[in-house]
Design brief:
single chain; 584 residues; 2 domains; disordered N terminus; Tachylectin-2, Chain A; globular; 40 strands; mainly beta
């Protein structure tokens, strides 16, 4: 992921499009790379970034034929998958983070590696000013036809619905093909076997009766330009009475199985009541009959004291392997404190899970029986094992980034689209230039992070900041959104004293910089530090070393409920990484 090569921006066109009740505005401007050597602010050097996850769920080794759930740990929501021959390709939502739309590849559904990101060039999308967790890239869907891969998705608050294409999913994807005639969110392409192309999507009905009243519609489109060729026909009205949750219908996909058209969608919203539904018809345009056994996947009405609780199952995509066996990928939440807090808490975000699918005698898919918990390990498909030497994404895993390559790996995340090259890799260090764009300002700060992928984890970095100035701060940051984060760093305060501190910002703190909740003085001559954050479900502990001296605890047992979606809101998980900024 060499953004230094692709950071050159083009002048973007202004786009105004009403999407899901929001006015979406994309405004581009000329950007220039920072001259790191002559920049007025200091430079924070990070020699390592270490991560280790150790959840009890994954402690026991897997049998050779088993797959751990989730198949991707951490904030990888809204999975969509397509099989091309023996290869599986999967994409996910990224909301306000850049790069966007990670593309994963597998041959056995157990081992996954990230090929790249479909949105990896700043000129493709501009996330300036958007909310990190409520706006940005929503619910992509990936399809393949005649040598071309298609991803269709929505950029809420930044342009509307669009498609990107490629012939090589590990290479570059096209500029967005905007779809100004397509309403709503969560579109999915369906290529019928008669050569026609359709887009199925969420939309607001004309007779919308309440906020949660939504619908699913489909239109035929031109297979090249994707311009409409038919009316936009409603398939399912979320206000239709049913003994299951049909509010907030979203995430639709169309399939053709044994000559019938099957529509999948999720109801109940993206939180606790999220459920997976099916409908079918003799025609693309309906009418669609509901599966009377809906929902085919839910975790509602299970006991709150069950072990290893998983909630909010939905937003699935079904597919076959080369043996003709059916599977589904879907999102769900691994939660804690379910018996103490309504609907539990989680900071790992909505993760990607896998389950087998069976078809009953009435021609409906079956996934889980009612009141059955999602298993944390399953028997995998009868496919040859195909592990990858790098990029382990599930179970308990550890890694150390030593910045000894020219490029950052594809799983590093930036807050919104970078507009200047304020980072550099040199001599085994990641160098981050201190800037005035601060975390929490709804801008694009000097922060590079990775998804927090476990309930129990340790995150560490080594920091060298030899020319630090008053007000400049650098270290580790854990963030849920601009209003909810915790910064653990070294700074020089207004008295000219070097200190290590923990600074917290939550939604109920008015100050843009939050509040300092722990602080210790450091020696004036100290310049190298090791910072450790230990995550234990809903609490964090903070440790530091100065110039290789004894390790000290700065703060223990910090309640980090403000880093969970239940408190902070939004649709992402926590991201942890390195930052540098000036607070003056």
């Amino acid at each position: 992921m060499n953004f230094n090569k692709v950071i050159k921006f083009t002048q973007a066109r202004k786009r105004f499009l009403c999407v899901f009740g929001l006015v979406a505005i994309c405004v581009g401007c000329s950007q220039q790379p920072i001259d790191i050597e002559s920049h007025a602010f200091g430079e924070a050097k990070f020699d390592t970034f270490q991560y280790s996850g150790f959840d009890e769920t994954f402690a026991a080794p897997l049998e050779a034929d088993q797959i751990a759930n989730p198949i991707l740990n951490g904030f990888y929501p809204d999975p969509s998958i397509v099989r091309v021959g023996e290869d599986f390709y999967m994409v996910h939502s990224t909301f306000g983070y850049f790069p966007g739309l990670p593309v994963f590849h597998s041959k056995d559904l157990k081992h996954w590696r990230q090929l790249g990101n479909a949105i990896d060039r700043p000129e493709q999308l501009d996330f300036e000013g958007i909310h990190m967790g409520y706006n940005g890239i929503y619910a992509p869907a990936i399809e393949y036809k005649n040598g071309t891969f298609y991803i269709i998705t929505t950029c809420v608050g930044c342009g509307g619905n669009f498609i990107v294409t490629t012939q090589d999913p590990s290479g570059s994807w096209s500029q967005p093909i905007w779809l100004p005639d397509l309403e709503g969110i969560d579109p999915s392409i369906f290529f019928d076997d008669d050569g026609k192309t359709y887009i199925v999507h969420h939309k607001n009905p004309e007779n919308k009766k309440y906020d949660a009243h939504t619908a699913i519609a489909v239109m035929e489109v031109d297979p090249q330009t994707f311009a409409p060729r038919s009316d936009d026909v409603m398939l399912v009205d979320g206000d239709t009475p049913a003994p299951w949750h049909t509010e907030y219908l979203e995430g639709p996909h169309l399939y053709k199985v044994n000559g019938k058209y099957y529509l999948s969608a999720s109801g109940g919203g993206t939180e606790f009541y999220h459920s997976y539904l099916f409908y079918r018809s003799e025609s693309v345009f309906g009418p669609y009959e509901p599966n009377l056994s809906n929902p085919v996947l839910t975790q509602i009405d299970l006991p709150s004291d069950r072990p290893e609780p998983i909630t909010a199952t939905g937003h699935g995509d079904i597919f076959t392997d080369i043996n003709g066996d059916w599977w589904v990928v879907f999102l769900a939440n691994r939660v804690y404190d379910l018996n103490k807090t309504p609907h539990g808490r989680f900071h790992t975000g909505r993760e990607t899970f896998l389950l087998p699918v069976q078809w009953n005698s009435e021609g409906w898919p079956e996934i889980l029986s009612p009141k059955v918990s999602v298993p944390t390990r399953i028997t995998g498909p009868n496919l040859e094992s195909h592990p990858f030497p790098e990029n382990v994404q599930s179970g308990n895993f550890s890694y150390t980034e030593q910045f000894d390559k020219e490029e950052l790996s594809d799983d590093w995340l930036f807050i919104r689209t970078p507009k200047e090259t304020w980072w550099n890799i040199a001599n085994g260090s990641l160098i981050i230039t201190t800037r005035e764009e601060r975390v929490g300002d709804y801008k694009q700060p000097s922060f590079i992070g990775k998804r927090l992928a476990h309930m129990h984890a340790t995150v560490s970095t080594s920091l060298d900041f030899p020319n630090q100035r008053v007000g400049e701060e650098a270290g580790l940051l854990a963030i849920q959104n601009d209003n909810n984060y915790v910064a653990f760093g070294v700074t020089i305060n207004s008295d000219g004293k070097k200190v290590v501190q923990v600074r917290r910002r939550t939604s109920d703190i008015e100050s843009e910089l939050g509040e300092v909740i722990a602080e210790l003085p450091l020696s004036d001559s100290g310049s190298t530090f090791k910072l450790d954050i230990v995550v234990d479900k809903g609490v964090m502990h903070f440790y530091f070393e100065e110039d290789n001296k004894a390790r000290q605890q700065l703060l223990g047992d910090l309640d980090t409920g403000f880093l969970t979606s239940q408190v902070a809101g939004g649709f992402t998980g926590a991201v942890v990484g390195m930052y540098s900024q000036t607070n003056h």
